[in-house]
Amino acid sequence: MRPVTTYPAPPLATARRLEWAFLPPGIRRYVERRCGSPVVAAHSQGAGFTPGFASVLACEDGSRHFVKAASTKAQRPFADAYREEARRLASLPEGVPAPRLSWLLDDDWVVLGIEHVEATNPARPWSPGDLAATLDMLERVAAAPGSSVASMELTPIEDELADWPTHWQALRSRQTSLPGWDRYRDEAASLAAGWTAGCRGESLVHLDVRADNVLLDGTGTAWLCDWNWPVLGAAWIDSVMTLLGPLGDGLDVADVLATRPLLRAVRPDHLDAFLALLSGYFLRMGGESVPPSSPWIRAHQWWQGEVCWLWLAQRRGWA
Question: 22: closest CA among 42, 8, 36?
Answer without folding.
Answer: 42
